[in-house]
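[Q] Does anyone have a clean structure-token version of this?
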Amino acid sequence: MNTTTSPSGSTVVEAEAFLAAHPEIEAVDIVLHDSNGIGRGKIIRRSELLAVYASGRFMPISIVGLDICGEDVHETGLIWEHGDGDLRAWPIPGTLAPMQGTNPPRAEVLLSLYTLEGEPMSSDPRHALQRQVDALADDGLFPAAAFELEFFLVANDRDSDGRLRPAAAVLDERTSNKTEVYSVDHLHGMEPLFADVYAHAALARINAETVISEFAPGQYEFTLHYRSNVMQAADDLVRLKRIVRHAARRFGVTACFMAKPIERYAGSGMHFHVSLPDRQGKNLFAERKAGDWNDTLLHALGGMCATMGESMLVFAPHANSWRRFSSGSYAPVAGNWGVNNRSVALRIPAGAASARRIEHRPSGVDANPYLVAATILAALRHGLRNKIDPGPATTGNGYDEVAAADMPSDWHSAIVAAEKSGFLKSALGNDMHRTFVAVKAAEYARVARTISEVDYDLYLHTV
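[A] Here you go.
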């Protein structure tokens, strides 16, 4: 077998050890993520795995620039400018793991895309995040992070009006249309499904922690263990999302990761918690005494506030994403910050100073976590380098604050802002920025020309 040095750091030894330890595995899902955060790839047979680790796997360059429907977007420059040629996808070390409940037994491994010469493919979202991690490391900063995963479990069929309805409990088929926020007894009805999620997460070496009943019928949230490596935090999120979707299908319900699936209830966020250790592991956000916020924390907040408007397309990338920000829907609508206040975009949670962190709340669960993390880290670094003042903390109801003039009010204005943004181009890199914005513009055009049921309801027999 011809072996090429893997630019991702993966080794054939890892694959050999895995196959020896898991003789039951018959196939492997090989998965990389496009600009929308959607897993793309193939299912290979057991006999093919060693070759992937030895030489990588050829994948078309266009795979990272597909739209939400999986169609080519020519404006990305990844099709005709490159002849849609093959690049090489390489395994990510430590991500090869068995999958729970597959028949026949399968495993999964994450991939990242590289040129044939072994250089990072600049429209791969993982590489956009790695650039920001490396830039902070050059400054002696090593951010730690974790995502939260909010989602709905809904019935496979819709109600008589064609709307989604909460899934019945998989334990005993009991139904509820109540909000049930923080109800522990309500969680018991989904216990078999959640047990499946925890078992699969353990196989994948993902430390899924608390599960809660969230603020809408059928809405739930998993928290993830804090990671000292931001890339691992993003990997955890995309893998847990896939695990939840797989478990839901096994139990006859649908896991929904739309930002706003049910119009009269709150949508689903993907809150990102970040702290800032130095080389010695000291958290530079920690204050000497309670409430005495240091300049590092304040400037990081300042950078996030100052760049939020031009970054909103990353945090709210789809047409449905913007429905989550409707009035009274418990999603932040202004670039503000506050202490122990869930009505702001940037929250400093309560807790010990040594664990001080910023909770970034604007992103919907439909966003790409690699691009979200890359953008937030770039904003943090921008704030530190330019010593940006975030202004006073918000007290009371942050939803009452008026958004800044540069804050987009809808999906189209977010696309325009992102396209013009020098900051976002720097945060994502030129190629990733071009790919992402082109995909969003193509999706906007698709939605804009689609005749919806709302159009028929309002206008068919009226105008």
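[Q] Thanks! Anything notable?
[A] The chain has a mean pLDDT of 94.
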